[in-house]
Input
Amino acid sequence: MALYDRNADLNPEIGASTQLSDTALVNFVKTTYKFFAGSLLLATIGALVGLMNFQMVTQYKWVFFIAEIAAFFGLMFTRKMPAVNLLMLFAFTFLSGITLVPLLGFVIARAGASAIWQALAMTTIVFGVMSVYAIKTKSDLANMGKMLFIAVIVVMIASLINLFLGSPMMQVAIAGVGVILFSLFVAYDTQNIIRGLYESPVEAAVALYVDFLNIFVSLLQIFGIMGGRND
Output
């Protein structure tokens, strides 16, 4: 059951139910974006800590990656424990910032530190534009769900194949598709949030954070590879 009553306005016997439901929805959305902002802050701190310990992070990158995945699954297993779930959210986002460090180092070496800020600025703009679109459009984006899920599977398979091929241009193409795909996910998830389709603000914040992170990572890959194309 969600934290607010999505079906309250269907009961004509309760005159104030719609207003109460709308108020609860507004509070839900505010809490979601507070958690989302906190997630971005923790990820930034994680990245800074990782950069200050660059050698250790690169040496044990798989350990941090496994810890990140464990924290992500921990989010699923603690869905019914609000306080623990929130802690798992911040642990996951902090660790995701640390695991970004090898990619950040690659981009800095190939394209310079300015490329990171450009990627971050572009990610923020894309995220904002797609969020506004989701709010303003009269289209029902729920129909995109299956298509987006299939696209994610295709991108994952292509990424695994390219691990063996090692083609920079193929990776650029995959990253370009990733930018488009997760931009669509921003709109899809945002509309789901404002329609009350998430059980908790933590769950909603995770969805937005993963979208933002994947757009950012995809842009970093593009800048990093294209920045060193003449090497």
Remarks:
- The radius of gyration is 19 Å.
- Residues 1-20 have pLDDT under 50 and may be disordered.
- The chain is about 80% helix and 0% strand.
